[in-house]
Specification:
Layout lengths: L1 E7 L6 E8 L19 E9 L6 H6 L8 E2 L1 H17 L4 E10 L2 E10 L10 E9 L6 H7 L7 E2 L1 H17 L4 E8 L6 E10 L1
Parallel strand pairs: 3-6, 7-10
Antiparallel strand pairs: 1-2, 1-5, 3-4, 5-6, 7-8, 9-10
Helix pairs in contact: 3-4
């Protein structure tokens, strides 16, 4: 089971991961070495959304490019979370977002738990990069990847800047003729407005 807790600020639409854990699921065939690769196709066995009141489940599902029964990857699920954040941003509604992924063989069960805030409670707080971490990169050095990106410690971060740097890392791998799946997780370990960006890289 993979559990994530995210905090979305409507003014920024940046998913802030405040926790991450991986464990096996009793009674199910789980991956012994942890969750499957980020780009591995999985059958979406179920997608459960709870806690949403100001934004209907139909609105959330309409924003997603996948639905129950489809084949998805962890990367696509992560992108779907960003789509949900975008829906809430447009409505100026803040939220706390929790995610549980349960893997069973080639299938995945997704549960999204939403705790909404009143529209007027959504605060516009600038998030600042505190540190940038690269994980899983062996064929390209940290220096190579840093040179390809624009965000640095002290930079103000928003969704567009984060997405642009994620694409830049992907292009750096392409330039070196290396195939890789790139994920980026922003977290707030200190609980303030300082963000640690962690690039989760799966090289092929």
């Amino acid at each position: 089971m993979r559990t994530r807790h995210l905090l979305a600020r409507s003014a920024l639409a940046v998913a802030i991961a405040t926790g991450f854990a991986a464990a096996s699921v009793p009674g199910q065939e789980a991956f012994a070495a942890g969750p499957p690769p980020a780009n591995q196709p999985l059958k979406l066995k179920s997608l459960v959304i709870s806690g949403n009141k100001q934004v209907s489940t139909d609105e959330i599902l309409a924003a997603l490019p996948f639905h129950q029964g489809d084949t998805v990857t962890r990367n696509q699920i992560d992108a779907g979370v960003q789509d949900v954040m975008g829906v809430y941003q447009k409505k100026n509604v803040g939220l706390k977002f929790g995610e549980k992924l349960k893997f069973a063989g080639s299938a995945v069960n997704v549960e999204w738990m939403i705790e909404e805030q009143a529209p007027q409670a959504a605060r516009q707080v600038a998030l600042v990069v505190d540190r940038i971490v690269f994980q899983g990169n062996k064929k390209l050095s940290d220096a190579d990847l840093t040179a390809a990106t624009r965000l640095r410690p002290g930079s103000t971060i928003d969704q567009a800047a984060m997405a642009a740097d994620q694409q830049a890392v992907q292009q750096a791998y392409k330039k070196h003729n290396v195939s890789a799946a790139i994920g980026v997780v922003p977290s707030q370990p200190a609980g303030d407005n300082h963000v640690v960006l962690t690039y989760q890289i799966t090289e092929k």
